[in-house]
Write a structure and sequence with these properties.
119 residues; seven-stranded mixed sheet
Length: 119
Amino acid sequence: QVQVVESGGGSVRPGESRSLSCVASGFTRDFWAIGWYRQAPGKERELVARINDGGRTNYGDFVKGRFTISRDNAKNTVYLQMNSLKPEDTAVYYCNAHLTLFGPDRDYWGQGTQVTVSS
C-alpha cells in the first residue's frame, strides 16, 4: 500500500528557513516522481518542486533559487529546503507521489503541512 506522509511545517519569520520532509513508501517496482505542491486560501494549487527516480528536478518559476528539493533513497524521504521565506510562501504544502510503470498513472497525496510566514 502506498503511503505519503509530510512533516516539518510551522510558523517562521520572514527571511528564515524551514525544511519539509516527505516519507513515501510502497512503490518499489514503479518509476516515480515526488513533488511538493502548495495551496493558499483562495488560490490554486501550484507546483513548488519535483524530483524523479533518476534525480531530475524542476521548480516553480516563483522559487528563484530559494528552494531546493533533494532525496535520501535509503530513508525513502524527499526534502524541501526553503530559504529566505516570504509571507507569500504561506500555504499548506502537500507531498505528491506520481507513479508509472506499465499500468495507468497513479497519484497519491499526503495530508499536508501548514507553513506560516509572518512577522
